Amino acid sequence: MKAEIFILCIGKCKKSEYNPVIEMYLNRINRFIKITQFEIPAMNYKDINQTIKKESEMLIEKSKDMFRILLDSNGKKIDTESFVRILNKIFFTGSKRVCFIIGGPYGVSDYLKSLVDLTISLSCLNLPYLLARTILFEQIYRSLTIIKNVPYQH
Questions:
Q1: Is the dihedral of CA 22, 29, 34, 119 positive or negative?
Q2: Which of 74, 90, 101, 119, by CA, is between 20 and 30 Å from 65?
Q3: Tell me: the pLDDT tens digits for 10-55?
Q4: Using an 8 Å Cβ cutoff, are 68 and 11 in contact?
């Protein structure tokens, strides 16, 4: 089985200025490894805890049998070199399916947090989810160019 990367997020990517950039990185990444983005519609229950629970259940279901990496502002602070090492280690230790999880505006359940293999933060800042996605795609692409020892295309 070839390695694959999945991006699993809550919320649809509406028409946005980020879309062309995200598409560009998806195309660039696909030259190295298969990458798929799954968007789960945001839930809107009156009770925020119910929203978090239901969204988290869907994230858990969609990420079964994968190495799960949760993006969370309280996660481990990493730089690009650390990100490269993380991807390298995952792929060279046998995990072939990696899933990056981006929760909804209210976050994810503690249960989901207990199931993930790794929790990282892309920034000390709170980022809008589309900007977080864009940064994630760029860092995946950058890391793959480093791992494959090819020049980074600006």
A1: negative
A2: 74
A3: 988 777 888 899 999 999 999 999 999 999 998 888 899 999 999 9
A4: no
